[in-house]
Amino acid sequence: MSAAESETAGTERLSPADFLTLGNALCGIAALRSIMVQGSFSGTESRLFAGAVLLMLIGAVCDLFDGRMARRWRSTPYGPHLDNLADVITFGLVPAAMTLAWVGFDDDWAMPAMVAAAGFFLAIVVRLARYVTAAPEPGIFRGMPAPLCAFTVVSIIVLEPPVPMALAAIACVALLAVSRLPFPKPSSRSLAGIMVVWAACGALSIVAWAAGLPGGTTGMRFTAASELFAACLIPLIMLKLRHTMRDQFAPHATRRRTLPRPRRVSVRRPGAQRRVRIRR
């Protein structure tokens, strides 16, 4: 086998990071199955909703560490494409299905919910396609990341606002996904650790809520409210930091110096009939 053939054969094998990405996709499919067997999130069926959210959290952890694993060990050329396909399922299709199941299919708001869910799903697809093709920027994402969009939609559903307000908020999340606002990348260990701790706290509150433990509903709503507050606060902080850095490193404006205008003197040459102007 030639060197080119051996290299091609090597790229066809999945790396450990790719298997972690496929785990994210499997979590999304399992969460989607939990949502499809119910029409609302009331009563005992809230356990199915809690299971779907737990699977989304596991998928988010897989999505957080597959990139680190690929950078540390080995990556394949189609690793980013697998990551995008898995994110479309877990963070695009599952929240859209949650929206439809929460509103219901016999409600008067069923058609607006369909429009909001479809708009959110398409916004996630466009956002992920732009991420693959755009030039990477160090330290930031352009547009709200897909996992943050997904859990923001989940938080809106958990807080149970009026349906028109919830659909308008989901539409705003879709706009943030395709916007150019900067969002921080979880590239540092401290930020990744914060995200893992938040996922663990969210998982505990979901389990307590689904099991009917005392304070489970309060903890679930508090977790959802904190996530929604962070989703609204992060872009404002990033915009403030960007303007601060721009003002700090921008060159100071210098006052333009005005040179004096040269004086014109008219002299008459001897024997000449015309005037000659000499500039000094």
UniProtKB/TrEMBL annotation:
Location of the region described as Disordered in the Swiss-Prot/TrEMBL record: 250-280
What GO MF annotations does this protein's record show?
phosphotransferase activity, for other substituted phosphate groups
Q: Which organism is it from?
A: Actinocorallia herbida
Residue stretches spanning the membrane: 48-65, 85-103, 109-128, 140-159, 165-183, 190-212, 218-239
For this protein, the record's Gene3D superfamilies field holds: 1.20.120.1760
Q: Which UniProt keywords apply?
A: Membrane, Transferase, Transmembrane, Transmembrane helix
Q: Where is the composition biased (Basic residues)?
A: 253-280
Q: Name one GO biological process term.
A: phospholipid biosynthetic process
Return the protein name. CDP-diacylglycerol--serine O-phosphatidyltransferase
Family in the record: Belongs to the CDP-alcohol phosphatidyltransferase class-I family.
Q: Which InterPro entries match?
A: CDP-OH_P_trans, CDP-OH_PTrfase_TM_dom, CDP_ALCOHOL_P_TRANSF_CS
Cellular compartments per GO CC: membrane
